[in-house]
Amino acid sequence: MATIVGAIATSHIPAIGKAIAEQKQSDPYWKPFFDGYIPAREWLAKAKPDIVVSIYNDHGLNFFLDKMPTFAVGAAAEYRNEDEGWGLPVLSSFPGDADFSWHLIESLVDDEFDIVTCQEMAVDHGFVVPMGLLWPGDGKWPVKSVPISINTVQHPLPSPARCYKFGQAIGRAIESYDKNLRVLVLGTGGLSHQLDGTRAGFINKDFDRLCLEKIVSDPEALTHYTIPQLVEYAGSQGVEFLNWITMRGTMSGRVTQVHTNYHVPISNTAGATLVLDHQPIMQRQAA
Ligand code: DHB
Ligand code: FE
């Protein structure tokens, strides 16, 4: 059966992609941020995932305001990156696993999540920047992917409680797949930031610290916020933390924090990384 080996959560700011392209990882501005990914890659080398389920939000590349699914799941053989206008290089396509995707989709629909299925899907910085951080190099991606996009852009947004339940359903879907796949779950975006309006530049370190702690030890405590509260505390784009909550919901076994890094600011955003190891319940019983 497929197992969830762990999860990584990370910011996905376009400026990171630009810094990678321009090899600025050791510049004083960027170094404290990029150094935070060294332990993540060391853990990945041991965890050896075959496939990544990436929970992110599209920012207007694949979906636009005219048609905005709450939850969308990729079901393609590959996912292409496109120019979003940020000045980033367009990365090579990401291989998919349509068989695994369709299993996830069937399981999610059985579980009463009426998602949108995407047999064609362009992936934006929310998906590609984390991939470039975790597997730097020549763009030959060593893992397959399933992109799962959550609407964090156009209200009404799904609540933290709904996203946590969606994550739990994704976890059940992954663990009921009958091939021995090692699955890594990614949650991208955040932490606090607001790019527009009178609060542009808003960052809330206290709330970020609380989120970084609770997402590990007591994720259900985070499911009690309403969307207006999340906007108030994290900023209008800080609601991308919904992707982290969904990521955390996928893991029902024992979760151990391997590494975390918090660095403020990167671009307009509180940059954060979190690596979580997961020991599934069945494995624990067998031990
Ligand atoms: C920034 C952050 C984001 O999450 C995003 O999608 C785009 C830009 C920023 O901080 O610049
Ligand atoms: Fe974003």
Structure in words:
The chain is an alpha/beta fold and 287 residues long. Helix content is 34%, strand content 23%. It has helices at 14-21, 31-34, 38-47, 98-110, 125-134, 160-175, 205-217, 227-234, 241-249, 281-286, and strands spanning 3-10, 51-56, 71-74, 78-81, 94-95, 116-118, 122-123, 144-150, 182-188, 254-266, 269-279. The strands form two sheets. Strands 6-3-8-2-9-1-11-10 form an eight-stranded mixed beta sheet, sandwiched between helices. Strand 10 and strand 11 form a beta hairpin. Helix 1 packs across helix 5 and helix 4 crosses helix 6. The chain starts with a strand and ends with a helix. The model has no long low-confidence stretch (mean pLDDT 96). Fe (iii) ion binds at residues 12, 59, 126, 189, 237, 240. 3,4-dihydroxybenzoic acid (DHB) binds at residues 12-15, 59, 189, 193, 195, 237, 240, 267-269.
Provide a concise account of the structure shown:
The protein has ten helices and eleven strands. The chain has 287 residues and is of the alpha/beta class.
Blueprint of the fold:
Layout lengths: L2 E8 L3 H8 L9 H4 L3 H10 L3 E6 L14 E4 L3 E4 L12 E2 L2 H13 L5 E3 L3 E2 L1 H10 L9 E7 L9 H16 L6 E7 L16 H13 L9 H8 L6 H9 L4 E13 L2 E11 L1 H6 L1
Parallel strand pairs: 1-9, 2-8, 2-9, 3-6, 4-7
Antiparallel strand pairs: 1-11, 3-8, 4-5, 10-11
The chain binds 3,4-dihydroxybenzoic acid (DHB) and fe (iii) ion.
3,4-dihydroxybenzoic acid binds next to helix 1.
Radius of gyration: 17 Å
The low-pLDDT segments are: none
- Widest beta sheet: strand line-up: 6-3-8-2-9-1-11-10
Our measurement of the CA-to-CA distance between the termini, rounded to an integer number of angstroms, reads: 17 Å
The unique ligands bound to this protein are:
3,4-dihydroxybenzoic acid, fe (iii) ion
Helical run tally: 10
Helix share, percent: 25-40%
Structural class: alpha/beta
> What proportion strand?
15-25%
Give the SSE string: EHHHEEEEHEEHEHEHHHEEH
